[in-house]
Amino acid sequence: MLIITDVFYIDKKAVVTVLTSNFIRHALWLSIWTSFTATFIALFFAVPMGYTLSRFRFPGRTLVDSVIDLPIIFPPLVAGLTLLVFFSQSVIGRWIQENAGIEFVFQPKGIVLCQFVVAASFAIRSAKTAFGDVDRRYENVALTLGCTPWGSFWRVSLPLALHGIIAGGILTWARAFGVFGPLMIFVGSFRGRTEVLSTTVFLEQSIGNLEVALAVALVMILVALIALTMIHLVGGSTEVKL
Amino acid sequence: MIRIERLSFGVGDFQLRQLSLEVAQGQYFVLLGPPGSGKTIFMECLCGLRKVESGRIYIDKGEVTDLEPRARGIGYVPQDHALFPHLSVERNIAFGYRVRGYRGEDVIARVAEIVDLLGMRHLLSRRINGLSGGERQQAALARALVLRPKVLLLDEPVCALDEASRQEICSELQRLQHQLGLTTIHVSHNIEEAFSVADKAGILGEGKLQQIGSIDELLRKPRNEFVARFMRCENIFSGEAVSAGPLPKSTTVQCAQTQLVVAGRHHGQIKFMLRPEDVLVLAGDRHSDAVENKLRVNLIRARDCGNYVKMELKGAIDLVAHLSHAAFTELKARGGSNLVAVIRRENIHIFPA
Fold first, then answer.
1. Residue A224 domain-assigned (yes or no)
2. Which of A31, A173, B178, B234 lies at a 20 to 30 A Cα distance from A153?
3. What is the torsion angle, in degrees rounded to the nearest 10, for the CA atoms of residue A230, residue A231, residue A232 and residue A236?
4. Chain B residues with CB inside 8 Å of A135's CB?
5. Strand, coil or helix: what is A120?
6. Which ipTM score applies to this complex?
7. Spatial distance between the Cα atoms of B113 and B107, rounded to a whole number of angstroms
């Protein structure tokens, strides 16, 4: 209903502007590749972390668990502010920027980092739940049948947890794709450089181009719909558990 | 053959203490115990899934205590079977071979051999989620047997099945075990399973092996009250040996308000039991040739338990008797009937001190 209202509000001129603008095309491409990169990096960390948290007891486990969940509950703006302070004020942050040669502040790489910080919790949480749902007896039987612990993880636990991990990936991507507040603080919104679709919506409506802002928003919805459908088709039936 | 020497393991407040057991080559051993008695933990220790605190485990002539689970030569069927739901039945069965790097004809031939033995070729292409309880049991068994284990460990293998399937699978297990000459340990809380398959059985309770022996020994000569109660004996009494009995090698025991004659010489406080099926119940006016242990009792309640009728009798001591349907019908007893319970002294088992 809400989307239909948006569709009727925009006019032909706005659609033409969106389809022909190089800046918006760049923002679309930047949104897609940064959000997928952030999601893959998040999953890369989520699988071992989720498995460790679901299978092993160690001192400080509850604290680690809570820290992982923090980005889910604190305002995304805080993430952007914290990243900005870390990379501009702290010794380690400045060393990374200046000596290691990896620049994040006001750079496209910063978009990926921002999206990762805000969205990785969803991937880790989902992976932990997915591995927690895999009965240990499957792993135990695999061990008696000839598997090493790594083999039992690779051949049994991971395939059985895969749907849950994919579900976490979907959530992570959706969160990363739509992130806005922290990007405005940490990487800004430079046209043709760090502007992503969410910041385009903000920029267009701030200069009074409400129709263009809505048209961009519809593009975001369309891209999200296509991506989610594809992921669902690839991942089979997925159940999101948090 | 598997030999366990003084195995101890603790988790939280629970302890398995100094468990020793030997199951001979080709023997079918049933380990019985109430839920929570540590049967599954014991099996996991044998598999190497839990590291024992002390003790030794030998399979055939080699020690396996410190070996990885995959190197022990054990076939393990856990409770609920734990078939891998993401693989077909065939891939479940071949799993052990595939992880060891075997491929192609070798695997196909060995899988074919085991599925033919179990008569389950029609299940090979099926997914796990579509299988019935009995079919899952067959698949889990095939997966464990395909690697030709030296010892087969079955953890509550038929507990999730209905009565008819349970009996069928138990017969199948016994057939396979005899055919393959497999040393088998089967754990269960259900004594009927032991009746069906066991060459020998043991009772695990309170963290230790309470008794090991034939089923008949566990039933009629339990080592203690725990074993007797687990084997469903409700007639357990305490008494004091007061004098030599009226017959050679017998003792008179004061028990509540009556005196019983028991076989053998005993002194001081004793504890004894009597199996319900060994209580002879007669109509109050019937004559019995028995010279000892005739008790006047009233029938409190009679309950049909399928294969027998359970009678609760109140007298100088309260007794439970199991009668066949024919014997109960002939007795023509109803609630409050005056009856005579006859207890033969040789049927009274005194627990060792």
1. yes
2. A173
3. 110
4. 82
5. helix
6. 0.83
7. 10
User: Model confidence over A198-230: pLDDT tens digits?
Assistant: 888 888 888 888 888 888 888 888 888 887 787
- What global pTM score does this model have? 0.82
Residue showing tokens 């339990």: B222
Residue B199 tokens, joined: 């060459």
The answer to whether A155 faces chain B, any CB pair under 8 Å, is yes
Q: Is A186 within 8 Å of A194 (Cβ atoms)?
A: no
Read off the CATH number of the domain in which A105 is found: 1.10.3720.10
Give B76's contacts (C-beta < 8 A, 6+ positions apart).
A140, A141, A144, B43, B47, B69, B144, B153, B155
The pair of structure tokens assigned to B22 is: 């030997």
Q: Tell me the DSSP string of A68-104.
A: HHHHHHS-HHHHHHHHHHHHHHSHHHHHHHHTS----
Contact A138 B96 (CB under 8 A): no
Can you give the residue ranges of every domain in chain B?
2-230, 235-350
| Cβ atoms of B182 and B77 closer than 8 Å | no
A151 and B99 within 8 Å at the Cβ level: the answer is yes
Q: Is A144 near chain B, with CB under 8 Å?
A: yes
User: Whose structure tokens read 């309170």?
Assistant: B206
The fold of B235-350 is OB fold (Dihydrolipoamide Acetyltransferase, E2P) (2.40.50)
- For residue range A122-181, what is the model confidence (pLDDT) as tens digits? 999 999 999 999 999 999 999 999 999 999 999 999 999 998 999 899 889 988 998 988
Nearest to B49 among A140, A147, A151 (CB): A140
Q: What amino acid occupies position B53?
A: E
Nearest-neighbour CA in chain A from B261: distance (Å)? 53
Q: Is domain B2-230 given the CATH code 3.40.50.2000 in the classification?
A: no
* CA nearest neighbour of B283 among B345, B344, B347, B341: B341
Which domain does A153 fall in, by range?
A: 2-235
Region at B36 (left for phi over 0; alpha for psi -120 to 50; beta for the rest): left
A135: contact with B, CB 8 A cutoff: yes
